[in-house]
Amino acid sequence: MKRWLVLLFSIVSFSGFCQMVTVVDKTSWLPLAGVTVTGIPGGNSVQTDANGKAVIAELMYKSDSLRFTYLGFQSKTMAVAVVRSQEYRVALVPEVHDIGEVVISAGRFLPQKQVPQQVEVLQAREIAFASQPTTADLLQQTGKVLVQKSQMGGGSPVIRGFEANKVLLVVDGVRMNNAIYRGGHLQNIITIDNSVLERTEVLFGPNSVMYGSDALGGVIHFYTKRPQLATAGQSNAFSGEAYTRYGTAANEFTAHAQANYGRSKWASFSGLTYTSFGNLRQGANRSSNYGDLGIRNYYAARTATRDTMLLNPNPNVQRPTGYKQYDLIQKVLFEPNRNISHQLNLQYSTSTDIPRYDRLTEMTGDGELNYAEWYYGPQDRFLASYSLALKDTAKLYDQARVVAALQRLEESRHNRRFGRNGLSHREEEVWVYSLAADFSKQLQKHRLQYGVEANYNDVASEATEENIEMGVSAPISTRYPDGGATMQSLAAFLSNTWSVSPKIVLTQGVRAERVSLHAEFKDKTFFPFLEDEVTQHSSAVTGSVGGTWLPSRDWRFSLVGASGFRAPNVDDLSKVFDSAPGIVLVPNPDVKPEYTYTVDMGVSKSFADILSVEVVGYYTWYRDALVVRPFQLQGQDSIEYEGVKSQVMANVNASNAYIYGYSASVAANITSAIVLKSTFYYTYGRVKEETGDVPLDHIPPFFGKTSLYLNLKKLQAEFFVLYNGQKTLRNYSSSGEDNLQYATPTGMPAWYTLNVRTAYQLTPHLQLQAALENITDRYYRVFASGISAPGRNFVVTLRGSF
Description:
mainly beta
């Protein structure tokens, strides 16, 4: 009998000793790895493993309650008795607003609350829940970035009144901006596949110290998913995800698959995405303020040997707008030990021809279409990069990262006027070589960040005109110098983060950069007024100083002053093109670099982990701003370009400009399952001229988003409102960049849309998502866009994982 009692006691004791808890995401019911479980009182803690499990026997024995904390999720405290009664399964709710988030781009692994710059972070789970067809659409849906579109296959982010080549795009530590990024509107962001993004960080305001030229309005840094090694106790790890999505507004179909295979020292991550878009249907519920804007009664078609205008069976279908896109990624990680990491990163994106919809809708005074064809050729982006990460206690650094990259980009423009046989083809190819080395060193209360960066761009441009009847081609003027163009930069930077005390963190930084450009014009047949070559050298020293003050756990104050710098590129100095009908932009070799000086101040307050409020205000002095203004060539203010008498315009340095604005956000945990969040952004910009202040281009109307989130067991839902204010005619710039020709006679009316999205976890490995966007089928158009926004859009997504 005694032996049986001893055995029974041992079994009970062993069971208690091995007592475990499983922590899961409440909305997906999937396990969470790395959750910290802390005993109260006592302070001892353990973390959950890859399966979301942790042994808590010792904590339960010494504590009255357990606190579960995990980055990006609401913390939860439970009595030990409750944990025992619930069979040790704890569900955490995703956090909608988390200022404890660690940011990489601006703070170099500092908590967001210690970084003086305004930063917004999108995590992988938020990106997946949004389920947007392109990265441009993803940013637009955040309500924090305005996105302009000239065609469905595009999207140009606007941050604090800056756009295109004044906003820096970065992917995995490699600059995307190249020598032909223009000052108008870009579509390059759609070559980033949001299906493979681990996180996206949006840095507001100048960040030239860390990133150099182009980072005037801000930086958007995309981080793709990292290959995952096998965890301790595993010989290998194989996992994957796949989804299909269908959207009704553009008859969009997307299929995506990704797989990760990991061993103890090396791992591989692969991804493939295919997307097909049909013609985009705009909203049918239109305000009288829009008049006939966006109505598509006719479209061009080729019948036999002549162009005809065909009647559009549904004037709300924007025809033609459809295209297809393919995205691939392959990453290989090798870690021989914990202090050394090698990573190879290959990315490729391409598309079919993309119709330039805004140009295809332009009409002559006689009621005839201007163009029979206008499309972008396949937009190819190839990236190959190698990165080396080191951790050491060497004298010069604690951490180091070196990234060497090669990029090849190809884009083209093709257009033919209605009723004519000449189809022009202008093609550009850019090779970009870059090398960047970052080092970090902790010296007591100071963290030094320093490094060097070098970039080299090689641009080739070709152009021909094809007679579609005769089948012959002849040379025409190239968009960029026909003799080629190169642009190179070399920079060094130093930044210091000084933790004066747990409540005060100060930052200082400085960067020196040298940029050179050379372009050659060989054939003077089309533009005899051009010089044989253009050469320019620019140097700049930029700096920043700022700090955060955390007087208590609930308050945060930040103040930062920073200068920004952007050197003119090949597009600024040597391009010839028609920015709008009857307007031709010509080279101006006398343009100089543009600079900004910004003061940024923010304050945030949390109320008992229930409510958080943040307000950020800024003022930017804009010196030598590059703007498009009337110009003269050989004493003439107009020339004939492609058979059309056109006003001569050029990039010039305006004497002075200023931009100011503010943003406000609020997040409230109404209950543990219901969260309210709202954001609001306002921007105002003017150029100072002798006749008075005139509007600066790219300044958006006020915009924002208000959301109500619901988090239940296996179910996540969001009801949200996206809204934009009115942009009146008097606030439009005369440069043409605001696309006044695509607005109403009074400007662009205010608009809002009602939307809802949901995600339900059918099984641990299968999720169903459904969304209804623009529920009321409202017609609207985003400021400066040449295409109307989607109408009512029902989206369904099926996701699987293993």
